[in-house]
Structures are given as C-alpha cells and as structure tokens.
Q: What sequence folds into this?
C-alpha cells in the first residue's frame, strides 16, 4: 500500500503491532485462531524473540502450530491450548505486545466465541504483564449479542484505567453501520518520560 489508508479495525491494529515490535521482543497472541496473526507476530519478533499463543480450542492450536511450522517459525513459539483468562498464571515475564482478536474462529464453530467474563479476566491479567511502553491491541466485534456485551464491558474497563499508568485509544468507524469491528490500543506509560 502506498500512502495513508483508513481501512479496518484489524488493519489499524496490525499497523500498531508492526510499529511496536522489534527483533528480540516477547509478544502474546491471546486468540490464535487459524494462526495468521501469530505468523505475522512471530516474523516481527525475529529468531531471538518469542511468541506465546493461547486458544481454548485444541484444533485452533493445532492449525496454528502447523502454519508456524510451515513458515519455519515454530522454534520461537510457545503455544497453549488454554483459555487466555489464565494468561497471568502462565506468562511470567514482561511482554512488549499482547494481541486480542475477539469473536469466533472464521469457518469454525460460532458457539465457541470469546465471552465477556473470560475476556475481562484475560485483559485484566494482560495489562499487568505489559512492559513500560508495551502495547495491547484488541479488535472487538459488536455485530452479535456476546460481542456487543464484550464491547460495552471493555469500553467501561478501559475508560477507568488511570492515565498515569495507561493511554487508551478507541478507534471506531462512525459511518460503517451497526456492528462494525472496533479497535482499542492501550499503551503502558513509561513513567516520567517526556511527551509531546
Ligand atoms: C477471531 S478468532 C482469532 C483469529 C486469529 N487471530 C487468526 O489470525 O486467525 C478468535 C479465537 O478466539 C478463541 N477463543 C475463544 N475463547 C477463548 C478463550 N477463553 N481463550 C483463548 N482463546 C479463545 C476462539 O477459539 C477463536 O479461535
């Protein structure tokens, strides 16, 4: 793509991810799905970095493992067939980037979708894992009932974060119609770093 383009929640999240990750960083994909995001993130952290992934569906983890293996990236990855609500029990190190892409697996069982309460626990844990200047990106899909409940919960939760600790951006395409995906980008503050 040449020049600036306002495209979609996922596109905006991916742009932020590319700017945040450097070789050697640790990243978490909290919703592996088919492994597309995981492959992109594993490329960005390079051979000296690490990608830790979660999905509640063993099939999704299997598909992601196959995709990462095919791309020659599995050596830098640690995949868990565990709900992301356990993220803070499993990840024991500061993380540069944590990615949530909510909803259900494209082409999979729509009844296995992310849910408000587990998403709340996962995001609460994830925020504690971010290193200074570390970033969490989250794409939410309010086009179905559970997705709408998740979006309401997240908007409340992120709005209540102390600005001394986190900056939160909420991107919403105002003319895209009801149910259009929305993106949140949260950055942990560095402390007393000078700002523009
Ligand atoms: C929209 S898909 C993710 C797409 C993926 N990032 C990709 O690049 O293909 C959402 C995923 O979240 C997973 N999921 C649902 N509840 C979960 C939970 N509690 N913990 C972790 N993953 C969960 C679903 O199984 C599904 O694979």
A:
């Amino acid at each position: 793509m040449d020049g600036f383009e306002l495209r979609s929640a996922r596109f905006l999240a991916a742009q932020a991810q590319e700017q945040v990750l450097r070789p050697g960083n640790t990243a978490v994909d909290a919703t592996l799905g088919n492994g597309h995001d995981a492959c992109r993130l594993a490329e960005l952290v390079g051979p000296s970095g690490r990608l830790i992934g979660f999905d509640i569906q063993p099939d999704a983890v299997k598909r992601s493992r196959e995709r990462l293996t095919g791309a020659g990236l599995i050596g830098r990855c640690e995949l868990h067939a565990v709900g992301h609500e356990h993220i803070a029990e499993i990840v024991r190190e500061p993380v540069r980037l944590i990615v949530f892409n909510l909803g259900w697996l494209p082409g999979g069982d729509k009844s296995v979708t992310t849910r408000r309460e587990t998403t709340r626990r996962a995001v609460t844990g994830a925020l504690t894992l971010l290193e200074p200047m570390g970033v969490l990106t989250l794409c939410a899909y309010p086009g179905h009932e559970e997705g709408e409940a998740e979006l309401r919960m997240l908007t409340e939760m992120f709005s209540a974060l102390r600005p001394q600790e986190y900056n939160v951006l909420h991107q919403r395409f105002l003319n895209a119609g009801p149910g259009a995906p929305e993106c949140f980008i949260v950055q942990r503050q560095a402390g007393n770093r000078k700002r523009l």
